[in-house]
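JOB MANIFEST
job_type = single_chain_structure
chain_count = 1
residues = 446
[input]
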Amino acid sequence: MDFKKMYQAKLVTAEQAASVVKSGDWVDYGWCTGTTVKVDEALAKRLPELTDVKFRGAILFHVPEIFKIEDPAAHFTWNSWHMSGIERKAIAKGFCYYAPVRYSEIARYYSESKDPLNVAVFQAAPMDEHGWFNVGTNASHIESVVEKADKVIVEVNENFPVCFGSSLVHIRDVDMVVEGDNPPVDSMGEAAPPTDIDIAVASYVVPEIPNGACLQLGIGGMPNAIGKEIAKSDLKDLGVHTEMYVDAFVELTEAGKISGKYKPLQRGKQVYAFGAGTKKLYDFLNNNPECLNLPVGYVNDYRTIAQLDNFISINNAVDIDLFGQISAETSGIRHISGAGGQLDFVLGAYAAKGGKSFMCLSSTFTDKATGRPASRIRPTLSPGTIVTDTRANTMNIVTEYGMVNLKGLTVWQRAESLIGIANPIFRDELIAEAEKMNIWRRSNRR
């Protein structure tokens, strides 16, 4: 079969690709760094004549051109699987909405949803001699998207990394090919240096990690910073099985900490569902057979994670209440992120032999309304706050003031333990609130 001839037959302009989108359509815009650029520009010019177009996407690192049209809410909705800062700002403009999802189930949502998928468009590396496009670090749920979509449009980007695993789409399954302008792959930018709080939190977590452990690092500054501290440690023969591949894993590999020799699954391989970071990360993953980008339905499934001995899950949180309920998604009704795979990794780590999950957060944040510090450890979560991890699932909680394991503790023990790692300036207030809720047993402090 002549794949080059097939490619040429399907090659169209961005304008021709955009023309297939109709009013009322559901359109998948790619995942994370795979978000379309060239077709997006063409579609932004067409959108003012359309209504009720429903886009799906997630973790935007650049502002799509469709967001910039006049009165976007009159023409489309953006339905996000996981919010970035760009998407949070779009909520206030009335056209962006979160789609609650355990990320491990997203492929099943596509295959079983009664909503159609009329068009899917995403970036990929150029087709190889065997007819395959590579979607880089975004294997995630691409197979289900391609299977579901009526029309599949691939936007070629020569700068996309070629990743091993399930990052493949064949020309046979593609309806249109657009040769883009080859922009740099979206970058998260260089991570800020670890703060004193990051280093203090890491000082509690790193000693809990045994040699040969398998690591997962969540989205956010603190897990990435802890990963960098692990790279400075004496640990060895670590493995990687993570939702998101971040720059810290590159540093861990370069520091000689990663071998994966004790992993019972994909021994010696670093497994991830998607990745995003700096150019250094993309260069590291490009044609690197040590790293496998596999479907999220496998990577994030807690039953998969449970098979990995000494699994270490490191994530962050927005708030936690004295009962042990964790929110990593919202503060009140203000949306911040999403459920992602956090709960899957919390459950999977606990189910794994020797596994541990760590929820890491600074004890305080600065309240923008008052300019004063506020406690992340609260008597109860603020009204409207979404619970990401229920109190029954919470394991290790870490702040710069210490670490507590909530598994098996009664409500009064939880309250006491959490108050003990809160910022001291808030402890009396938390004790008083705990007493009102009848979850405080001690009247003295240690």
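[summary]
Residues 266 and 356 are 20 Å apart (CA to CA).
The longest helix spans residues 221-231.
exit_status = 0
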